[in-house]
Amino acid sequence: MKGWPLYEVFIRPRNGIAHRHVGSVHAPDPEMALELARDLYCRRGEGASIWVVPASAITASRPEDRDAFFEPLEKEYRHPSHYDIPPDVKNM
Amino acid sequence: MYTQGLDLVPKGAEAQRPKDAEEVRLEEEFQKKIDAEIRIEPDDWMPEGYRRTLIRQISQHAHSEIVGMLPEGNWVTRAPTLRRKAILLAKIQDEAGHGLYLYSACETLGVSREELIEQLLSGKAKYSSIFNYPTLTWADVGIIGWLVDGAAIMNQVPLQRCSYGPYARAMIRICREESFHQRQGYEIVMAMAQGTPEQRRMVQDALNRWWWPVLMMFGPPDKDSWHTAQSMKWKIKRFTNDELRQRFVDAVVPQAERLGLKIPDPHLKWNPERGHYDFGEVPWDEFWRVVRGDGPCNRQRLEQRRRAWEEGRWVREAALTYAEKRRRRREAARAA
Amino acid sequence: MDRQEVLFEYLLRLGDNALILGQRLCELVGWAPELEEEMALANIALDCIGQARLFLSYAGEVEGRGRDEDALAFRRDVLDLRNALLVEQPNGDFAHTIGRLFLISAFNEQLYAALTGSADRRLADIAQKALVETRYHVRHSGEWVIRLGDGTEESHRRMQKAIDDLWMYTGELFTTDEIDRKIAEAGIGPDPATLKPAWDRRVEAVLREATLERPQDGWMPTGGKDGRMHSEHLGHLLAEMQFLQRAYPDARW
């Protein structure tokens, strides 16, 4: 029989901060994944909330998509430094 | 720890097939990224040798954490105080956790946990030779923390900057969590070195038994280490085995002197010209013998892992069966 | 028996339950069915050892004869241990380990919840901390009882056998003796018998979901918490746990 499936684990360190990917865990089902993620990733009291997601449910971009997805610095007019405003204009 | 580079394939056995132009270009680009300290992530292109080296090193590292629980686990039921018991158990638990972080990092390279476990249990995969030595008295627990974890930290700190992102991130977490491991060991050794004559005997005996095996943890001497040059170029490794071994000796000799313990090496001597301690030849015959399977506890350690895995099979299967039953029940309920 | 002595005895019961259960879980290091579960069992063991230290330290202070947590944990023999028979039972297979953990944790959950309202502030504070931990122990072990009970044919058979084997040791938890009566009268702790209905509901709900049968109540041995007659298993556990303190009585560690 095959092993337990893989879940990716996301933890919110404390309120006010987004969940962050911390690693993964093998578990037989989502509820158990939550408990086992807690036992693995929160041994030192880190964490106010945990998400577990079946690794198979994640759709990821591919490295070869990088240029198409993340074209750098083309639309420079999206950046505030693109605009010439005289220094005496305040609160801008 | 534990990055001993224990691959027993003799030099040159990995046949080189000719590379095509595209492959050469990709490899050059890859090396440029490495040189620019850009981390490699799981889906990025990487040379097959880089992937294989990482799988070997990370999985050996993970196996070492898991087998490494056993010698210390031998004393958790006999720890002399409740505080020591809790500390030791927490430390062993960290090791299980670190094994899991590392298995996860290894899985990002396209090898499954079952395959990795299977390689360990079949004896195909290696783990650090240090865990094939027995823990005979409580002093061994102290010495393991002080020296074995001390050596591990020497090895692991530079790995936080390893070129492979998931491995480096696992190491950052591991180094942070392990910061107490060496200190708790030194505290045990200190209490015993300042204790009764029986305790002093135990702790000196443990130091005598562990000293050379600990120096072996850094792997074979550079002249015999056929992975080192390539691993350094790929920035998987940042320092050679001999560099780290020297650094370790320089660090722990004063710590031993502070406690009045004698390091069992007649050649150990401060060399003012080099600015380092000179030390005797590590018994490499013993090292290779233990790596090949003939150490005091090789069979015992693997046997325990195998038994635990076999005895747990019905539990793992039951959990999967339950998950499947429940999934079907929920689907049926939704359909109804 | 004066008030101090009664409180001391009562604290030993609480401390020894945590101590012996924690020691049993320590025996499992390296033997969990999967590495993730290794982490979970170790967390629970650490909670138990931590609780034992708090209860036993307090017991030593109440006794006032200079015994600390370690003197109480490592220098008392079978006749002076006050843990329930249930926790000293051997680990057996994973079903027995989990079954024992679930049955005692479901009891401790009720007990600690009641103790948070204790007239003894120190005890109430310890109970508050222990309650939070124990809720997780009940949850985790309960989840496993359900998975094993409703898993494969083999796991169902093993889980049912574990519950059947352990059931007889649950009776002692709810017996009320002289110590319990005095503790209840002083508002320090609950009469154990009053914890039974909530425990029954909790245990029955899990057994039902696990498709397991609740065993018939038969003869229920006692003698653990009053130290009258422990099982043979306890002596071996102590021999191992206390070895260093006994062999080197003058040493400090």
- Assembly form of the protein: heterotrimer
If classified by CATH, what would the architecture of chain C be? Up-down Bundle
Query: Biggest chain pair contact, residues each?
Result: B-C, 47 and 49 residues
Name the overall outline of chain C.
globular
CATH class of chain C: Mainly Alpha
**Secondary structural class of chain B:** mainly alpha
| Number of separate strands of chain C | 0
End-to-end CA span of chain C: 35 Å
Name the beta content range of chain B: under 5%
Please trace the helix and strand order of chain C, writing H or E for each element: HHHHHHHHHHH
* Major sheet attributes of chain B: 2 strands, antiparallel
Largest sheet of chain C: none
Please give the radius of gyration of chain C in angstroms. Answer: 18 Å
Side by side, the strands of the main sheet of chain B go: 1-2
By DSSP, the count of extended strands of chain B is 2
The parts of chain B where pLDDT drops under 50 for at least 5 residues are 7-13
Number of helices of chain B: 14
Q: Specify the number of helices of chain C.
A: 11
What is the gist of this entry?
The complex is a heterotrimer of chains A (92), B (336) and C (253). Helix content of chain A is 17%, strand content 22%. Chain A has helices at residues 30-41, 66-69; strands at 6-12, 20-26, 49-54.
Could you outline the blueprint of secondary structure elements for this entry?
The complex is a heterotrimer of chains A (92), B (336) and C (253).
Chain A: E1 6-12, E2 20-26, H1 30-41, E3 49-54, H2 66-69
Antiparallel strand pairs in A: 1-2, 1-3
Chain B: H1 21-35, H2 48-67, H3 69-76, H4 82-107, H5 113-121, H6 138-159, H7 165-177, H8 179-193, H9 197-216, H10 228-233, H11 241-258, E1 269-271, E2 276-278, H12 284-291, H13 298-311, H14 313-335
Antiparallel strand pairs in B: 1-2
Helix pairs in contact in B: 2-4, 3-4, 4-7, 6-7, 6-8, 6-9, 6-11
Chain C: H1 3-26, H2 35-63, H3 69-74, H4 85-88, H5 94-115, H6 121-149, H7 153-167, H8 178-185, H9 196-209, H10 233-241, H11 243-247
